[in-house]
């Protein structure tokens, strides 16, 4: 019975973060990734249904959001192109590079989420020290890997992945040194899931292109990253030991709330709902040019964000406690707004040309249903087995090699493919 509960819980979180990450494809960068990460984090809290976690819910959610959002600085357009090549060495390199990038998304996202779960007055996490160490790690890794050794993953694109790798290394050492083994376990499984999901998603994208089915297979790749990353983060959480805390009294959490409902959404709006972009997405859907509709989308979206943000701040300013129903209402509203903004920016309210936008709604309905069916998960106390994890890691790398062979053999030259090996790569091209 517990296995069935666990599987249903993993499916629910996987679909949640998968759908949110697919929506993130319309917005990109750190802000889009952070919003998606927050949604996946809420789903885990709802399934866990622990009062001590509800008491610090927004602190946990913003930790997951920031963790998943950090990876948004990484560029991966070139490595996706390597996965579309016809030579095994280039395809495998592309899929392994995506495994690294997706793994960094998940490792930091799962790690900060896990640390926030275990943070308490008895066992406090030294956040300032951790942040300083992560910044130093980013600087050192980028300096040596990129500046000194010139181990470039995505030439001529930005190589920020090296800095993120330094952050992940510092985070791992911090968790190991402070004996935060449960948080480390969450990070490792979220990283393994996110890495596999990104590589597998690129494989699906290539096969989708070969099939010539008219669909947004780039979005399929994004969904895959979130789906498997969410499963990994949930599995790490539900199979780890967490101390029961007596701290169940809700305390005001202004900064996390402000970040979640105003700062991140407004940043996303400012970066995406620009008139030049709206002209490209909405004008082609109109029979005649009508700037009024584009202006309406631009400013109505901001009003939606402000209304929702002020509403949530007002509601939780008056709250004296948080329970399951409070978190679920926030989950539905926060997720629903993210989905609505995606429909607005793509012009899907004017045309059905973006069918994946309506699949988000279907996924959302299924997720709400699954949450109503998911029983409170029974936590399993599994230790961190390095041998088992190493075997799983090796199996994933071998499986990715099989995917690379199939992908390389499935097509001739296709649009958007790149070669990392076999031809000279211009390294001095300006960054995009």
How would you characterize this protein structure?
The chain is an all-alpha fold and 432 residues long. It contains 16 helices and no strands. α4 (57-70) packs antiparallel against α6 (88-118) and α11 (254-272) runs antiparallel to α13 (291-318). It is globular and about 60 Å long. The protein starts with a helix and ends in a 23-residue tail after the last helix. The model is unreliable at 427-432 (pLDDT under 50).
List strands and helices in order, with pairings.
Elements: H1 2-24, H2 29-48, H3 51-54, H4 57-70, H5 77-82, H6 88-118, H7 127-148, H8 161-177, H9 181-211, H10 217-238, H11 254-272, H12 275-281, H13 291-318, H14 324-346, H15 356-373, H16 386-409
Helix pairs in contact: 1-2, 1-10, 1-15, 2-4, 2-11, 2-14, 4-6, 4-11, 6-8, 6-9, 6-10, 6-16, 7-8, 9-10, 9-16, 11-13, 13-14, 14-15
Share in helix: over 70%
Order of helices and strands: HHHHHHHHHHHHHHHH
Unreliable segments (pLDDT under 50, ≥5 consecutive)? 427-432
What is the arithmetic mean of pLDDT? 91
| Class based on secondary structure composition and strand pairing | mainly alpha
**How would you describe the shape?**
globular
How many β-strands, per DSSP?
0
Largest sheet: none
Helices, by number, come to: 16
Which percent range describes the beta-strand content?
under 5%
Distance between the termini: 52 Å
Rounded to an integer in angstroms, the radius of gyration calculated over CA atoms is 21 Å
Protein name: DUF3464 family protein
Transmembrane segments: 32-48, 60-79, 91-118, 130-148, 160-176, 183-203, 223-242, 254-271, 299-317, 329-349, 355-372, 393-411
Keywords: Membrane, Transmembrane, Transmembrane helix
Organism: Aquirufa aurantiipilula
């Amino acid at each position: 019975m517990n296995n069935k509960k666990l599987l249903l819980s993993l499916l629910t979180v996987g679909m949640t973060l998968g759908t949110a990450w697919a929506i993130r494809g319309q917005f990109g960068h750190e802000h889009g990734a952070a919003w998606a990460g927050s949604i996946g984090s809420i789903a885990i809290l709802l399934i866990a249904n622990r009062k001590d976690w509800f008491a610090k819910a927004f602190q946990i959610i913003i930790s997951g959001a920031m963790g998943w959002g950090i990876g948004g600085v990484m560029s991966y357009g070139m490595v996706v192109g390597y996965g579309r090549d016809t030579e095994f060495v280039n395809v495998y390199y592309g899929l392994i590079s995506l495994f690294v990038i997706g793994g960094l998304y998940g490792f930091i996202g799962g790690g900060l989420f896990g640390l926030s779960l275990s943070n308490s007055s008895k066992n406090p996490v030294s956040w300032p020290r951790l942040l300083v160490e992560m910044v130093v790690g980013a600087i050192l890794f980028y300096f040596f890997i990129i500046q000194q050794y010139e181990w470039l993953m995505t030439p001529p694109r930005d190589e920020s992945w090296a800095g993120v790798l330094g952050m992940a290394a510092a985070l791992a050492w911090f968790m190991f040194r402070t004996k935060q083994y449960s948080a480390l376990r969450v990070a490792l499984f979220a990283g393994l899931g996110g890495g596999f999901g990104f590589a597998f998603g690129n494989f699906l994208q290539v096969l989708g292109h070969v099939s010539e089915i008219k669909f947004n297979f780039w979005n399929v790749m994004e969904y895959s990253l979130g789906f498997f990353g969410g499963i990994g983060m949930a599995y790490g959480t539900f199979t780890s030991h967490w101390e029961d805390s007596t701290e169940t009294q809700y305390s005001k959490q202004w900064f996390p709330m402000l970040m979640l409902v105003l700062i991140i959404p407004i940043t996303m709006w400012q970066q995406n709902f620009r008139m030049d972009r709206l002209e490209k997405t909405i004008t082609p859907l109109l029979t005649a040019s009508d700037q009024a509709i584009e202006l309406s989308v631009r400013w109505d979206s901001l009003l939606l964000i402000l209304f929702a943000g002020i509403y949530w701040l007002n509601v939780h300013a008056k709250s004296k406690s948080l329970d399951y129903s409070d978190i679920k209402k926030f989950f539905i509203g926060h997720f629903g707004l993210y989905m609505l903004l995606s429909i607005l920016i793509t012009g899907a309210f004017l045309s059905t040309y973006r069918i994946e936008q309506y699949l988000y709604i279907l996924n959302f309905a299924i997720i709400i249903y699954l949450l109503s069916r998911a029983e409170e998960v029974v936590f399993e106390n599994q230790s961190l087995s390095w041998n088992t994890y190493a075997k799983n890691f090796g199996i994933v790398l071998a499986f990715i090699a099989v995917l690379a062979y199939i992908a390389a053999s499935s097509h001739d030259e296709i649009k958007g493919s790149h070669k990392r090996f076999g031809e000279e790569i211009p390294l001095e091209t300006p960054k995009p």
